[in-house]
Every structure is written in C-alpha cells, then in structure tokens.
C-alpha cells in the first residue's frame, strides 16, 4: 500500500488535489493553511471565519497572491473560484459544508456548539469531517460517528492533537499484540483549578495566544477532554475521578503504571491519565506475557519489564491535520474516533462559589472547569457534560466551589444544536 506522501504525489501528477474546506482562521487554522500550501495534492480551497481579514492574511502568509483570494458568500461565485484554482474567503460556514467542490471539511473553531453544527452539516452533505474540536467530540461524537458511518463518510479527530497522537501509539502496539496497560499525555502547565482569563492574560499575551484557551489548559479542562476522547476511542477509563496526574520522568512511567500490589501507583489496567514532567509528549505503557518478547525488549534497551513505555516527544497540532485529511480521503479511515461510544464524561465543576440565577460562561472562563469521570459515574450523578455549557445555561440554585453541577441544577434558556444532538445520543445509546 502506498504511503500518504506517494498517494498525494500521484494525485498531483494526475493534475488533481484534495479540496479542503476550513472553518476557523485562528492560530490552528492559519498554521494548517500554510502547511497544506507547501504540500502536494492538497489545498484549502475555502475558509470561513467571522473576520475575513484573518482569512486573507492566512492565505497571503501561505504564499497565495491576494488577487487569487476571492471574498464571497455566494455559492456560485465560490464554485467558480475553486474551479479556476482560486481560493475563497467567506463568513458563511454553511457555504463550506455545502459546497460541492469541497472533499473534506475541517472544524478549527474550538467552540463545542459550532463544531457540532459543522460536523452535522458536513455529514448531511456527504463530506468527510476532521474535528480539531475535542470538546464537541467528547459530547456528541458517538452520535456523529454513527451518522457518518451510515452516510458513508469519515468522522475523525486530528493527527497532531494529543488524542490522535496517543491513538497512533495504541494502534501500533495493538497491531503487534502487546498488552496495553495505560495511555496518557504530559501536562504543559501546573494544574491550577482557579485559572481564568484574567490570571492567564499576561502569559497568554507573551505567547501570542488566547487567555481563555490558556486558562482551559491551566485549569486542567483540556487535559480532561483530551483523555476523554482517548477513553471513548479505546474503552480505557480513568483510574479515579479526575485521573491521578502523577509527576515523573519518561523512565519512571512503566513503574508508575504498575498496580499498587506490585509496587506501582494504579488500581487497574487499561487506564487513561496525565503526567507532569513529560510534556509535550504522549505515551503508551505496554507489556507482554511472552518470555521471548520480554527478552527481546530488554535486549533492545526498552527496560527490565514487566511494563515498557512507548513515548512520542512531540505533537504538531494542526500542522499534522493534513495527514488525517489524506487518510480520510484516500483510505476512508479515521485517525481517532469514539469506537467504544461514551466511556468517559467530562463533567462540569464550579470554579468558584456560584449564585442562584447566575449564567455559566464557556470553557476556559471564570465559572467552571472540567473533570473526567467514567460515563457510568456521571450518569448516576446526572452530571452536566461540560461540552453543553454556554451563556444560555442558568443556575437554579447556588453551587459551592468544587461541586459538580447536574442537569437538575440548571435551566437551559435556549436549545442549541449540541443540546439537540446530545438528547438524541442519550436516547439512542441508552
């Protein structure tokens, strides 16, 4: 079987290319446009963002002449531009999902409800959908995957995102017949459950990133969501609510993920977790019950067993997304998807004391953070999934800091797409 690079080269030699539609021209989207423009056999032919200047700047920084960037919200004009090897800037995300000339859609918005809308519309329009929106995926991904399968298209998370990078290690070890003991990632920032856009602002500005996005990393929400996606893809579960969050080096990982009775730190096998001290890497802890395999692993300097670590010290975020686009297009396979349905649930926890009548804000905001539980635990608590929160969710009672917010605690003042899809999913998968 040809590698993706050779398949892309062959497509270009044939005078064709994969036509990508992108929604979201923020940091991830801009990097992806430039990366793809330097590749063979692929191009971002249309991008949607509320700020058209963001799109134009992204295309010009990628080396596309300004005269070849056509700004329009009209479908016929967009189609004509693509046919003439021009690219399109639009404010209408539905133009991206419905345009016949688009083969694969990428959601790079990071907003759960918008991501759910994008995925739903893409699937209805028989287009492959790549999600750079793990928050939407862990909330309604099982339903979206089922719909994509029924429609003959691919629903997938992205290579380069930590869940996708972990899944590649999992697939590698699983194909070789190793026992996979644990899956995890390094955490870049010390855990600060009180982090918010105000406390994160100075560091975010120095890094050229969004204070809200940085706060969502610092308060642990992004880590919980990312490992939730891995849980749904593999059936692995958190060993305890919120995971352990050990500290350690790469060489210490095999011992940490031994069971307690064997001198380790976990109660179970097949767990997801995060570790301070190994960022930005991802890992899989593997083992074998075969003497010859263990002898070979020791010879290869993989350690003394019984556990060994597969460690990848990098993940290139949206710069790797083109690999998922190509895999969906050529091989009709996802990089990562919720094969096991809803195994984990990232629930909503009060970041501070909240008052009756108060509205919740968004992920990385001032009011709440996420905590990963087993889906069965969350269901028993009637806990509110974090991906459902937005400014339309109002508290019916006061909530203490650190308390898990339930469906019974809130009033939903406006029904959004992600709420509708979650209701269908809960009914369909119950």
From TrEMBL:
<dbReference type="Pfam" id="PF21135">
    <property type="entry name" value="DRL_cat"/>
</dbReference>
<feature type="domain" description="Oxidoreductase DRL-like catalytic">
    <location>
        <begin position="160"/>
        <end position="321"/>
    </location>
</feature>
<dbReference type="GO" id="GO:0050661">
    <property type="term" value="F:NADP binding"/>
</dbReference>
<dbReference type="InterPro" id="IPR048423">
    <property type="entry name" value="DRL_cat"/>
</dbReference>
<dbReference type="InterPro" id="IPR036291">
    <property type="entry name" value="NAD(P)-bd_dom_sf"/>
</dbReference>
<feature type="domain" description="Aspartate/homoserine dehydrogenase NAD-binding">
    <location>
        <begin position="24"/>
        <end position="152"/>
    </location>
</feature>
<dbReference type="InterPro" id="IPR005106">
    <property type="entry name" value="Asp/hSer_DH_NAD-bd"/>
</dbReference>
<dbReference type="Pfam" id="PF03447">
    <property type="entry name" value="NAD_binding_3"/>
</dbReference>
<dbReference type="GO" id="GO:0016491">
    <property type="term" value="F:oxidoreductase activity"/>
</dbReference>
<protein>
    <submittedName>
        <fullName>Homoserine dehydrogenase</fullName>
    </submittedName>
</protein>
